[in-house]
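Have a think about this chain, tokens included, and walk me through the fold.
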Amino acid sequence: MPIRVRFAPSPTGALHIGGARTALYSWLYARSQGGVFILRIEDTDRERSTVDSTHSILRGMEWLGLDWDEGPNIGGNYGPYYQTERLHIYKEFAEQLIKEGKAYSCFCTPEELEKKRKDAAARKEAPKYDNSCRKLSEAEIKSKLEGGISKVIRFMLPPIGETIVHDLIRGDVVFQNEVLDDFVILKSDGFPTYNFACAIDDHLMEISHVIRGDDHLSNTPRQILLFQAFGWKIPKFAHLPMILGKDKTRLSKRHGATSVIDYQAMGYLPEAVLNYIVKLGWGHGDQEIFSRQELIDKFTLKGISKNPAVFDFDKLNWLNGKYIRSILPERLVDLCEPLLIDAYGNHDINYIRKVVLAFHDRLTLIPDIVPLSRYFFTDEFEFDQAAIEKYFKSAENIQLLAILKKQLAELEPFDHSSIEAVFKGLAQELGKKLGEIIHPARLALTGTLQSPPMYDVVEILGKEKVVQRIGKAIKQCIP
């Protein structure tokens, strides 16, 4: 059987980290096996599904580079790929089950069902449906239908026995049929329930492997029973462990951004997010950083852990910094330029490029470029007070800055090698260590003791700005 793996999100919100991991593992398995990756939108939740959420999911997938072979905007031989466009299919299969005596009409009202649940709870029994409509005669059913009484369709569950989920990650998981109930497969509005539509579509789309979160594990026996009722081949299942926050509770919005699109806005690179997500439950030895092709080559379901993964922003930030340092300069400039223009106004692109590249090995998140580079775009910056006490309260350092200002003002050409020669020559002339020259100069030019290499800073700022700032520092800080 060909390998066909699907990712089937419900568009009730944006693509979150857990969903992105499911999509990634499904995509990797399909790609590693030379199979087909299908995207199916399960939009039958009429109250919560939105077009905006669908678009957000598609944007998130595209940003991560998880391309699909069949699905929205692409099509395929097994469509439609939106469940709301397949309602007639679910109706036909529900009618088939009724004809075969494997499903039946249920006319119980919501009020009656609520009372049954409360009565069961009072008896300390599981709150499951009591199968009362199973016992209706054909005449009773006909009468209720002719009377226009609202109905749902329920699957007729085997009352005894067990259903075994042969899970590729967890091993065999056994469910006793007696703890399940005759679940609804078609609602009164003609829309299918999740389990029914999912089973029908997985069969018709010839899905070979279902990879999804372990929150779906309780749904799987119901879907298996539906496959068995139709006499269909059951796909292989792999249920992924949950993702926890650092407080060891299930990852949620309170742990930080959970939408993939949020991470893009926060300044993460898609390849860094992808690399981090894949490590939330899967590993290959001690390797931490993987190219996309390496992931395809090395990914196996056997490498997935049974234990929950813990989301750690510090680790993600470390990875993102690694990836930023590895990307091409032109791409980094393209990412940073709009942020800098928005913060500091229009500047010459060559100047922006020099500034950005000076911070290439210092960024953790792309937006970090704005606060870090402030002194390159404005004279309005504050001096580090502790540094002032250390480097600007000494008459010796003020004299040193005055000499440096004069030599830089006379320097021609004003380039990196000439600037370096001035600093080293002054240190030798005054009998000082090079750092004793650089630290007060850095403070005068940037207001801080943390910056790119001093000679780069001086060259980028240019002679006029450098001379002006050193002079201003001398005037402001003479003890």
Q: What stands out?
A: The mean pLDDT is 94. The first helix runs from residue 17 to 32. The CA atoms of residues 16 and 260 lie 6 Å apart. The radius of gyration is 32 Å.
